[in-house]
């Protein structure tokens, strides 16, 4: 069984949006921070990964939101590196309230990138063993992401200095910020999000200007379809399930 | 003597920049969060302030940086509501490392705004007494902010959904993000900041597009001069002292 790792987290106002609820990009910032602490605790530090010439990249988040915690709430963040196959590592996250109710669950898919060749590398047992992660043969089948046919709206975002992390790439949580921001204040404050499925296809770098495009149509009125483009390159695709 | 209030804070990666140092806007997010906790602890909650028809606004930060803490560091954040006169409340913040060394100190000036008339209101003793804040007659004289003569560069920022706080105004920390972002990667990663003096003149709202303009000149080569404009309106002016 994969090792569980938990941390308590107090939610400050600046991780919330105008509704005083935890902002969706903050969910992934907090979650990834806790997974880094687990990695450090079992000795699989960034330096250890770099010693193989590798670096972690995130290829997908599948985020299920039951209820968002609020400013001032104390939550429990739990993670485990559930399983891995030749190329993909599957990590789960849960946010619980103080009474033990599940608020959010996330399945995140990681890959290891060869930093010199800029190609996906196969996962080495040495890296996953300390997490007691199960080696599986199967590659998990992902739900298809509904594509955009006729965009409802589009906005442009120039990468800001604080959008990039220590790899000099835009942090994955910023894609969530871009795609939700494009939807606008009215929908964000009048609807709640049940699920976000996002695939990361291509890194975005400092100096880039991306286009965040989305579609809401009558065929699937509760699902918005999103894409983050860097000129002709699809950097991310996502579906957001609303209620 | 004004009541001191302290909290410990662990710095996650997402409050840092590409150098793994605490980002300057994060300083003020963390500081204001701690001052809100003090206010709540003495019963001067937002609801209590609203019961007078008032709301807090920040008119100035004067931030002195000795050394920035890093990702993973545990810091102590201390604040006290030092003094107040007819219209201004002066609050101090300190960040210390675990050995007690001072990392950052801040003097922040607050006002109370009449929410209906949108005008500055006089400070009522009832609001400040629980902090044991000293009533002073004097209005502190502020250092002059060097103005821009010939802008070196300018960037435009459209307010994002997560830039606004529960007042539906842009959070004060975002002005710092805008003005530093305009300076660009090269300077931000090759120089360190010793002091930022920023005056907030006018609120910025959702939907606004601001211009962040700065000047670096040979007359004062270690001081950059900044202004955040909303068309013709000066929303903030700042000087950043570099080394």
Automatic annotation (TrEMBL), chains A, B:
Record Pfam families: Acyl-ACP_TE, Acyl-ACP_TE_C
Cross-referenced InterPro entries: Acyl-ACP_TE_C, Acyl-ACP_thioesterase_NHD, FATA/B, HotDog_dom_sf
Domain Acyl-ACP thioesterase-like C-terminal: 153-243
One MF term in the entry's GO annotations: fatty acyl-[ACP] hydrolase activity
CDD domains recorded: 4HBT
Domain Acyl-ACP thioesterase N-terminal hotdog per the UniProt entry, residue ranges: 3-131
Keywords attached to this entry: Fatty acid biosynthesis, Fatty acid metabolism, Hydrolase, Lipid biosynthesis, Lipid metabolism, Transit peptide
PANTHER family xrefs: OLEOYL-ACYL CARRIER PROTEIN THIOESTERASE 1, CHLOROPLASTIC
Similarity comment: Belongs to the acyl-ACP thioesterase family.
Record's protein name: Acyl-[acyl-carrier-protein] thioesterase
Native species: Vagococcus vulneris
Organismal lineage: Bacteria, Bacillati, Bacillota, Bacilli, Lactobacillales
């Amino acid at each position: 069984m994969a090792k569980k790792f938990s941390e308590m987290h107090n939610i400050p106002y600046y991780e919330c949006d105008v509704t005083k609820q935890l902002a969706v990009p903050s969910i992934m910032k907090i979650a990834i921070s806790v997974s880094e602490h687990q990695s450090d605790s079992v000795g699989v530090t960034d330096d250890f990964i770099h010693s193989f010439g590798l670096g972690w990249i995130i290829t997908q988040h599948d985020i299920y939101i039951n209820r968002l915690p609020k400013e001032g709430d104390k939550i429990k963040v739990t993670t485990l590196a559930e399983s891995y196959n030749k190329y993909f590592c599957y990590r789960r996250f849960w946010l619980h309230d103080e009474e033990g109710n599940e608020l959010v669950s996330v399945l995140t898919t990681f890959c290891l990138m060869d930093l010199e060749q800029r190609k996906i590398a196969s996962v080495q047992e040495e890296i996953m063993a300390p997490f007691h992660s199960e080696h599986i043969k199967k590659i998990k089948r992902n739900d298809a992401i509904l594509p955009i046919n006729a965009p409802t709206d589009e906005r442009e975002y120039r990468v800001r200095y604080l959008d990039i992390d220590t790899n000099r790439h835009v942090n994955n949580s910023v894609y969530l910020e871009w795609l939700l921001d494009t939807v606008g204040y009215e929908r964000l404050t009048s609807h709640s999000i049940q699920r976000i499925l996002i695939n990361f296809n291509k890194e975005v770098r400092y100096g880039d200007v991306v286009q965040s495009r989305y579609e809401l149509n009558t065929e699937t009125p509760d699902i918005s379809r999103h894409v983050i483009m860097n000129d002709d390159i699809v950097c991310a695709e996502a579906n957001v399930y609303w209620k």
